[in-house]
Write a structure and sequence with these properties.
Shape: globular
Radius of gyration: 20 Å
CATH superfamily of the largest domain: HUPs
Strand content: 5-15%
Structural class: mainly alpha
Strand order of the largest sheet: 1-2-3
CATH class of the largest domain: Alpha Beta
Number of domains: 2
Largest sheet: 3 strands, parallel
CATH topology of the largest domain: Rossmann fold
CATH architecture of the largest domain: 3-Layer(aba) Sandwich
Order of helices and strands: EHEHHEHHHHEHEHHHHH
Bound molecules: adenosine-5'-tetraphosphate
Number of strands: 5
Length: 326
């Protein structure tokens, strides 16, 4: 069976973009693939965090992922920091990637421009991400469109390592969903909905209450030409609503657009579709929230399964690069 691997940062509230761009795909893949999913808490350290906030976000994210449909019996779900092989392989990856390649990463340019403290980790983040993916002999990485460049650099690192030291890593491919791959902020449709950017009116949390979802979607920025068609460049706000409705109803934005002539109707139906999509997730989350010990148990089990795979890959890479066996 082909293996899928993907990760998500515990950097804030899980939002609709994460769900439609990545998690729906994660859930689907666990039916037909050998699936490994990781809460990348070490990546979350690239921007300053309060320790208590990080701990709370990490546990909550694990519960949300299970509520969304990840089944720890069908896939491996674990915390990155519980599997030391990630940090160990990251150093080998840092020594395989070039400064120039890291310097071209648009996510770094974006974030370093917006934050006062720019950590070294923010710059070398793609090396840790490459380690995450390559440790599991990953074939496919289901992600949103914003991760395209990071998967490309992972492929480049794997190919360079393989050509220098002999075949060591599987070279992975990304899987990006046809609808929902880039959900934009409802108030700033020129930028993606994000966990770490604070845009309360533009972001819909997976746990958002239903009235608030309706209000936010009704107030979403559109345009003044009154025409409903999918065109992300000329009509980013309307196109974002079409993408959300399409992804929430397993359709395409173009198909969805044919059913509407008024922005108000599109907004009402989009809000309803989102509420219906989130309702069962919210119910399940409330159940899981009351039993943190059970979530911790599942995460421990996940990390021991993850180590069975990652320790073998790490040892292979260390031997190939010329490090003496311990
Ligand atoms: N707006 C989005 N639309 C579609 N997919 C998205 N993803 C993120 N935002 C969108 C996908 O969600 C997965 C987890 O990514 P993440 O942990 O990086 O989430 P984030 O919301 O992007 O979080 P941050 O903290 O704001 O991180 P940055 O800014 O570093 O991405 C990924 O598969 C991602 O593609």
């Amino acid at each position: 069976m082909a293996r899928v691997f993907s990760g998500i940062q515990p950097s804030g509230e899980l939002h609709l973009g994460n769900l439609l761009g990545a998690l729906v795909n994660w859930v689907n893949h666990q039916k037909s693939h050998d699936a490994v999913y990781c809460i990348v808490d070490l990546h979350a350290l690239t921007l300053p965090k309060r320790p208590e906030e990080l701990r709370e976000n990490s546990l909550k994210l694990a519960q949300l992922l299970i509520a969304v449909g990840l089944d720890p019996d069908k896939s491996i779900l674990f915390m990155q920091s519980h599997v030391p092989e990630h940090s160990q392989l990251a150093w080998l990856m840092e020594c395989t990637v070039s400064f120039g390649e890291l310097n071209r990463m648009t996510a770094f340019k974006d974030k370093s421009g917006r934050n006062e403290f720019i950590s070294g980790g923010l710059f070398t983040y793609p090396a840790l991400q490459a380690a995450d993916i390559l440790l599991y002999d990953t074939d496919l990485v289901p992600v949103g469109d914003d991760q395209r460049q990071h998967i490309e650099i992972t492929r480049d690192i794997a190919e360079r390592f393989n050509s220098r030291f002999g075949n060591t890593f599987v070279v992975p491919k990304h899987v990006i969903p046809p609808a929902g791959a880039r959900i934009m902020d409802l108030q700033h449709p020129d930028r993606k909905m994000s966990k770490s950017e604070t845009s309360p009116a533009g972001t819909i949390s997976v746990l958002e209450d239903h009235d608030s979802i309706t209000k936010k979607i009704k107030r979403a920025v559109t345009d003044s030409d009154g025409e409903i068609r999918f065109d992300s460049n000329l009509k980013p706000g309307v196109s974002n609503l079409l993408s959300i409705l399409a992804a929430a109803t397993s359709s395409t934005p173009e198909e969805v657009a044919t059913g509407y002539s008024r922005y108000g109707d599109l907004k009402i139906d989009t809000a309803e579709a989102v509420i219906e999509l989130l309702r069962p997730i919210q119910v399940k989350f409330r159940e899981l929230e009351s039993d943190p010990a059970e979530t911790n148990r599942l995460l421990k089990l996940g990390s021991s399964k993850a180590r069975e795979i990652s320790s073998v890959t790490l040892e292979r890479a260390m031997t190939k690069i010329g490090l003496l066996n311990a």
